[in-house]
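Forwarding the complex inputs:
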Amino acid sequence: MRSEVNVDTAEAEGELRDALARLLRERCDIEQVRRVAAAPGGWDRQLWSELSAMGVVGLAAPPEHGGEGAGLALLAVAQEELGRRLAPVPLLSSATAQAALLAVVAESAPGAAAAAALLPAIASGRTPATVAVGRTVDGWTPLATVRAEEEAGGGWRLTGTAPVVADATAARALLVAATTGTGPALFAVDVPASTGGEAAAGGEGGAAGAEVQVEPLDVLDATRPLARVTLDTPATLLAGPAEFAEVLAATRGVALTLLAAEAVGVSAQCTDLAVDYAGIRHQFGRPIGTYQAISHRCADMFVGTEAARALVAAAAQALDETGGTADTGELDVAVALAAAEALDAAVGAAQGSLQVHGGIGFTWEHPVHHYLRRAKSSEALIAAPDRLREQAASRLVAAARR
Amino acid sequence: MVAAVETVDRPRQGEFLGPLREFLAAHASPPPRGGSARLTWARAFHADLTDAGLAAPGWPKEVGGMDLSLPDQLAYHREMTRARAPRHPCGLSFIVAPTLIRHGTPTQKDRFLRPLLRADEFWCQGFSEPGAGSELTALSTRAVRDGDHYVVTGQKVWTSQAHLADWMFALVRTGEPGPKGISYLLLSMTSPGLTVRPLRDISGGTHFAEVFLDEVRVPVENLVGRENDGWSIARTSLGHERATAFLSDEFRYRRVVSELIALAAGSPAGDDPVVRQDLARMEAGVRILASNSRRALETVLAGRDPGPASSVNRLMRAEFDQRLHEVALRVIGPDAVLGNREPTAPEGGRWTYGYLMSRSSTIGAGTAEIQRNTIAERVLGLPAPPPAPGAGRG
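Prediction (whole assembly, two chains):
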C-alpha cells in the first residue's frame, strides 16, 4: 500500500480543475451540448481546439511523444470535469489511442516507429483518434468482423466492419484490433478528411483504393457519438499477435480508468443538481431537502461519488507509477474496482437525481436525462460493473490460493 | 492533527522506524488465550512502549508523544499492524487525550496523560444519557458548584468499559438548556455516590454499563476548559481524534479484508459468483478508506480543510464494517450457526462475534442517520429540518 503524500499533486489538481471548470462554464453549458448532440455524430470542434491549446489532450503522454508528461492522475481529473459537463469532445478516445500507441512503443512491437510518429499529432489534438475493438460484457476483444491480410507489396489491408466505434466521426486516425491469419493484431488506419464529420461518406485519402466509411448510429447517449465503421483500406501494423494481448490490456486499463473518471464527474454533477433542487423546491411549506428521505439520498449520492473518486485517483496513480505494463495483476484489480464503483455511482446518482427532481426530471427539457443516458451507456461501453468485479475477485482469490 | 504539522523541531523522516522495529521484535509474542490474560498482556505492552518513548506518534513531545509528521504516523501505524502489536486496550483514552492536550491545565496533563498512555488507568466516556442519545445537547445530568467542588447528580448510559475504567470524562449541565450550558468534567470512578451497573450487550458480554451519579463530589480542578464551554470542547476534540484514528484503522481493515479473502479462497465460497461480487466490493471498500485517508492527509499537508473526506469517511467506515461481517458469515456458510464459544467455530468464532458487535458501528458515536444529516447539512448545505413543535433544537 502506498503512503507517500504529495502536496504538489493536490495543488496541480486544484489548478487544473479550476481552469477547466471556468472554460467549460463559458463554452460548454447544457444548451451548447444539446446543439452539438442534435446533429448525428456531432462533436464540439471549437471546444476541442481550446482543450488542445491548453495541453489537455496530451496531458498524460510523455514530452518525448509530444505530451505534457503530467500523468494519468491529472488526465483523470480533466476527464472528470468534462464528464461533469457532458462535453462532446473525443478526449476519452484520443487519450485511449495514445495509451495504445505508448504501449506499442513500450513493447517494442513491429509498429513502434509508426506509433512514435503518430503520437505527437494525436497528443497535440490535431489528429483526434479512437480505437475500434470487439465488444463483450467482459471487455475488449479483437474484431472478428475485420480481417487483416498482408498484401503482395508487404503492407497490410483491412476489410470488414466495426459495428460500434466511439468518437469515430471525429477521428482522423483509427486504431483497429483486427484478426490476421496468425492471430489478433493492432493496426493504424488514416481516416481521410472527407470521411469524417457528420456525413456518412467514403473518401479517397492518400492511398489508392482506400475506403473508410463512417456511419453515425442512433444512440442512447447522443453526447458521445458512436458510429459503424466499414473498412477496405491499407493499414499500418502496430502490434502483432505476440504483443497484442499486452497492448490491448494496457489500453483497456487506461480507457476504463478515464471512463471511470468521467463517471465520477457525472455522479458529482447529478448530486449537485439534486442538492440545488432540494434546497429550492418547496412542498408542505418547506424545502424538500429538509425531509430525510431526500437529504439522505443526496448524502448517499455524495458518498458514492467520493468513494468512486478515491478509487479512480488510486487507479490512475497506480497506472502512472507502473507505466501501465508492469505487475498487471494488481493493476487490473485497481482499475476494475475503480471502474465498477464509478460506473455504479454515476447510474445511482443520475437515477437518484431524477427521482429528487420528480416530474420535471422526467422531461426532455431538463438536463438530468442527458446525464442518465451518459451514465447508463457508459456502463455498457467497455465492460459491465459486475463483470469487472468478477475479474478483480478472480485475481484476488487466485492470489490467495497460491 | 493540524497542530502537529506546525511543529518545526521534528525528528528526521523515518528515524523512529529502527527503534520501533527493535522494540516490536523484542516484544513479539502471540497473544495469550483468554480475555483477562490478553488484557494484562496488552497493558504490559503499552506500558513498555510508553517507557521506550515509542507511544503516541502524533502527540507533541512535551506531553510524552513522538511528534511525528503525518506520513511518519502512517508508517508507524503500518509497522504496528504488520507486527500484530496489541491495540491500546482502552480506545476511549484517545478521545479524552487530545482534549486534555489542547484544553487541559498543566496539572491535568501531568497527572493524567502518562498513566493513560501506559494503560495504567482506563477511561470511559460519560456523554449519552437515557434522554440524550442522538440529541446529546439535551443532556440533564446536573453539576452544581459547592465551594471548590461540583456536586454531580444524574445518569449516564451506554458507557463503554465503565466497569474497567478508573476515570470518566463526562459532559454535565452547569448552565442554561442546550449546548451553551454544558461543562466537561473528569470524575474518578471510585467517587462516593457513583454506581456502575453493567449492561449485557448483544454478544452476551458486558462491554458497557449504566453509571448512576448521586451527589458525586468532583474537585473544581477537574473541570476541563471553562465552565459551560464543554460542548464545543468535546466537539473539536472528537474531530481531532477521528482524523488520526483513521490512520490506524486503515491498516487493520486492510488486514481483515485479506484474511476474509483468504478464508473464502480456502472454501467453496471462493468459487461462488455472488460471494465473489461481495469480496470485490469489500476489496474496493478497504481501498476507498485507504485512498480517502491519504487524500485527507494530502489536503491537510497542503494547508486546506479535509472537510468532506473525513466526514464521509466516518459513514463509509461504519457501514463497511457491517458489510464486511455480513459477507464473512456468508463465506463461512453453514458454520455461521456456531457461536463464538464453540471450539469448532471457524477462526475461534471471530466472525459471528464480530458480526454481532458490528451492529453497533452505525449507532455508537453518532448513528448513521445522524452522519447523513451532518453530510446533508454541513457538507452539501441542505437546509436543516424545522424543529418539532415545542422542542429545543441545538
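Chain A touches chain B through 51 residues (CB under 8 Å).
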